[in-house]
C-alpha cells in the first residue's frame, strides 16, 4: 500500500541534481548573492520550524497551571518529572510503544528496500514479457489512497486473528509501489547496461550479476528509500490506529491515548509529545542531509 | 556404443545451455515475484474486495454480506454528514495547499541563492517533516486553544478579540490547515528548489540584459521553468490533502470532528462509519466515493494548474 503523501517525488532526471555551474561570474544584477532579505526571511522560516518544539518544552516543563497563567518564555523545571509521569502511566505503555515503533519501522523499511531493489532491478535492466504493463500497474496504484483498502484489510486481519498484533501493521507495510518505482527509475539512469552484459559474458549467473553489479549500483537510492520508508512508517497513524489497541500500540497510537488520558493537563500531554518526538529528531540530526538530497534528487522534472 | 560418449557430451551441453536459458527467462519473474505476491494480497485484493463489500449489507459476526446493490452509495449521498465532511475536506485542503505552495515557492527561491551553510538552511526547512502528524496536531491544538491558547493570548495582547478556534467553522479549518502547512511547506520547498537549480543561469542573464527586473525574471523565467514540478507538487498535495485524517482526528479529545462536525473530514467520516458504527459495507462505499473524488479532483487540478501557470508566463510576456 503506498502512501503517496509521505514519499519523495519520483526520479525522472539525473540522480545528481545538477546545479549548473555558473560559467561566467555574472554581473551584479543576476548574481545569486544573498542579501539581508534572504537571510532574514529564511531566519523567520527557521524560527517557525523550531518554535512549536520550544512551545511544547515551555508547557511540558511546567505544571498543570502553567497554561492558565500569564505567558512566560522561561521553561519551568518539571520536564523530567512530567516525562516520568507519562512513562510510568500504564495506560500509555510508553516503552512498549517505542519498541513496537522501532520493530515496525525497521522491518518495513528493510523489506521495502530489499523487495523494491530486486523488482526495480528487473524492471530497469532485464527484458521479460509483460514488464511494461506490470510496471504501469505498479505506478497506477501509487495514487490509490490507503483508505480504499482499509475495510477488506481489516476483515482479513480479523479473520486470521491478527488484529492487535504487530503483524497486522508490518505485513501491509512490507512493500510500497513507490519503492519499486523509485528503484526502477534510479537503476535505469545510473546502472550502465554494458556492466551487466560484461558480467554475463564473464559467465556470471543472473543472481550473481545482480549481487555483484546491480546491488552496489543501487546502494545510494536504497539507503534513501530506507530513510523515507522508516520515517513514513514511524509516523503512520491511520491504519495502526484502526488495527492496534491500547495494550500494543505504536508511538502515534500511544500519543493519541495521551490526549484522552490527560486532556486537562497539557504539561503532561506536551511532555509526552516531546518524548515521542526525540527519537526522530535524533535520526534527523544524523541523516537529515541524506533526506534533503533524497528529496531534491527525486524532484528534478518531477 | 561408440556414439554414447559424444551423445552424452552434447546432451550435457544442452542441459547446461537450457539451464542458462531458463535462468535468463525465469530470473526476472523471480525477482519481481516477492513484491507482486505481497502486493496482490495487501494492495490489489483489498481494492477489488472493497468494491464487492460496498454492494453488500455486511454482517460483522458472520463476516459475510447480502447483496443490496448501490443502496450504500445512495444512502451516503443523501446523508447530511457526508456533505459537511466533503465541504470541510475541501475547505481544509484549499486553506492548506494554496498558501503552502505560494510560501514553498518563495522559500525555494530564497534557498536558490549562494547561501552560506546551505545544508543547514535546507535541513532547518525540512525539520518539521520528520515529526508525526499526531504530535504536530497535539502541539497546535494546544496553541490554538479557545481559552488559554498561545494564539488567542497574542491576539488579546494586540488588543484583538479571541477567535474560537475550536468552535467556529473556518477558524478550525485554518488551525488544521496550519498543521498541514507546518509539516509540508519545507518539504515542497526543497522539491521546487531542485527544479529551480536545474534552470540554466543563461536564461536569467539574457532576461537581465533585456532589462527584466528581478520580479519580472521570477515570473517570466523561474515560474515557467519549474512548471512541471509545480504541477507535480500540486497533484501530490491534492491526493494527500483530500485524505486528511490525523490532524483533524487529534484536534480535540473526542476525535469526532467537533460538536457540529465543524472539522469532520471524509476519512474521519469513513472511520466513524466503519469503526464507530461498524457498518463495513457503508464504509467501503465511502472509500470508493472518496477515491473517485480524489481522481476527479486531481484531473481538474491538473488542467487548472496547467492553464494557470501558463497564463502566468504569458501574462509576464504580455
TrEMBL record, chain A:
A matching Pfam family: BPD_transp_1
Q: Which InterPro entries match?
A: MetI-like, MetI-like_sf
The compartments listed are: Cell membrane
- Keyword annotations of the record: Cell membrane, Membrane, Transmembrane, Transmembrane helix, Transport
CDD domains assigned to the protein according to its UniProt record, in alphabetical order:
TM_PBP2 (cd06261)
Q: Please name the PROSITE patterns in this protein's record.
A: ABC_TM1
Output the Gene Ontology cellular-component terms: plasma membrane
Residue ranges crossing the lipid bilayer per the database entry? 36-55, 102-122, 134-156, 162-183, 224-243, 263-286
Q: Name one GO biological process term.
A: transmembrane transport
Stated membrane topology is:
Multi-pass membrane protein
Which intervals of the chain are annotated as region Disordered? Answer: 1-24
Report biased composition (Low complexity) as residue ranges: 1-16
* Domain of life according to the entry: Bacteria
Carries keyword Coiled coil? no
The ABC transmembrane type-1 domain covers which part of the protein?
Answer: 98-287
Q: Which SUPFAM superfamilies match?
A: MetI-like
In the record, the note on similarity to other proteins reads:
Belongs to the binding-protein-dependent transport system permease family.
UniProt name for this protein: Carbohydrate ABC transporter permease
Species whose genome carries this gene: Demequina lignilytica
From TrEMBL, chain B:
Q: What membrane topology is annotated for this entry?
A: Multi-pass membrane protein
The main place the protein resides is membrane
Spans traversing the lipid bilayer: 29-52, 90-111, 123-143, 226-245, 285-304
**InterPro entries documented for this protein:** ABC_transporter_permease (IPR051393), MetI-like (IPR000515), MetI-like_sf (IPR035906)
Q: Give the source's domain of life in one word.
A: Bacteria
Family from the record: Belongs to the binding-protein-dependent transport system permease family.
- Does the keyword Transmembrane helix feature in the UniProt annotation? yes
Q: Which PROSITE patterns match?
A: ABC_TM1
* Annotated localization: Cell membrane
GO cellular component annotations, sorted alphabetically? plasma membrane
Query: What is the name attached to this protein's record?
Result: Sugar ABC transporter permease
GO BP terms: namely: transmembrane transport
The answer on whether this UniProt entry bears the keyword RNA-binding reads no
Q: Name one Pfam family in it.
A: BPD_transp_1
- Ranges for domain ABC transmembrane type-1 come to 86-301
At the highest ranks, the source species' classification is: Bacteria, Bacillati, Actinomycetota, Actinomycetes, Micrococcales
Q: Which CDD domains match?
A: TM_PBP2
Keywords of this entry: Cell membrane, Membrane, Transmembrane, Transmembrane helix, Transport
Q: Which Gene3D superfamilies match?
A: MetI-like
